[in-house]
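Chapter review: from sequence to fold.
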Amino acid sequence: QVTEESLQADSGSDCISLELRTADGALVTLTADFRQEVKIFRALILGELERGQSQFQALCFVTRLHRNEIIPSESMAKLRQKNPRTVRQAEEVRGLEHLSMDVAVNFSKGAQLSSHIHNVCAEAKEAIYTREEDVKFWLEKGVDGSMFEVLPQTSDLPDLQRCKLCADRWKPCICSYSLSIEWYPCMLKYCKSRDAGGKVSSYKCGIRSCQKGYTFDYYVPQKQLCLWDEET
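The token string follows.
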């Protein structure tokens, strides 16, 4: 499976974005906002019209951006692709991350968390999710807590099942969505040089590429919003 990706960097606003289309036709975007320490995954999933869904469904997952997860925006902006049609394979496969997205984000207030939420998540106004541990980190940074709403948990609703096990399409359940970023520049490589006096110094001499998969679990008010999560 070969995936075509487009990468963009804006060193002025200190952010990068990466877009790819998955094998099932979904359009996945990753936006990394270094200034706010926020990363946003957006998925535009083609709807099943014959099963009463709209043309597409949009989801946004917002998580904390950690240092050294991805190369800085100014380094990304300097990347030049010599052979655009070359098929590249990631040098490192980073482990699958399983995230329980137990908090909803209010779209109209989300710009306080990251200005990019307004553009990236415009189609997913009612489906922006994050998790409690990331919320705690942002609250300590002074972000307004009123934009977050804790979603129902299995402990609140004992009969809350995973959507793939739920027979009734109109019942609430825990949906699961998986995506994979097949290739992204995750680290800078440094080389050493020695000057005439024998002094050693290091300089940036390339990038290391990674591949990483994510699975997001989150509450939906009805299984109809999670038809892909069915056992085939």
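Two observations follow directly from the output. The first strand starts at residue 5 and ends at 10. The chain has one domain: 2-225.
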